[in-house]
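Mods, move this if it's the wrong board.
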Amino acid sequence: MATPRLLTIVLAILIIAVGAGLTIYWFRRPVPSDRQQVMDVFLQMQRAAERKSLSGVMRYIADDYDDGTYTRRDLMRLGVSAFREPEPFNIVATVRSLEVTGSEAVAMVEVWFSVGAASARTGQHVTVQVQLQKNQGRWQVTSAQGWQDAAKAF
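Not the wrong board. Structure tokens:
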């Protein structure tokens, strides 16, 4: 029968081996390209909007967001109004073009959204030009043009 000391040594070796394997995997996994990271921002924002998670959307909006009309604080107020509606919020965003240059990116995004029962007649369609910047390893929206008229629906 194995002694408790032998079992402790075997368990310690097993834990070290698993930890080493996870560490190697973590550091060797491929880092997504900047382009893919920006695409992921749009996907995560869409998912957060569908869940009506204002904090989920706002995590991708830069603190210094300014589109000439609205600031980050204004967007938070608009989001509270929009997500307060009891009906589901439906949104489909399609990136039509994306240019990434260093730590800046510009995208043209077609957005269709509706509140309540989704239909082509009741939804709104806008084309938005989005500027993003990479700060501390995270891409965030710094400005967007073309969505302001749709905001009046709320």
